[in-house]
Amino acid sequence: MPTYAYRCADCGHAFDIHQSFSDDALTECPECGGALRKQYGSVGVTFKGSGFYRTDSRGSSGSSSSSSSSSTSSSSSGSKASA
User: Fold this and answer.
1) Kindly report the CA angle at 15 between 39 and 33, in degrees rounded to 5?
2) What residue spans carry the Low complexity bias annotation (predicted)?
3) pLDDT digits (tens, 9 = 90+) for 46-55
4) Residue (of 48, 54, 53, 56) closest to 80 by Cα position
């Protein structure tokens, strides 16, 4: 079950709660009865390996992109085996 962070717009009370995806969002502060807002934080994502650049997804229309795509697939399969 995911954990959601809420903060009251009236009193500033902040708390985390475990809720199912199918549960409705909370709307009332348990401390003062004010309006709650979901807090959204940043997610740390790190892209490693090839395949995350605009040029990596293009089709092979020339000899240079054909050679880069073959090297890309071999390097990505090597990184998957080592991970």
Assistant:
1) 95
2) 58-83
3) 777 766 666 6
4) 48
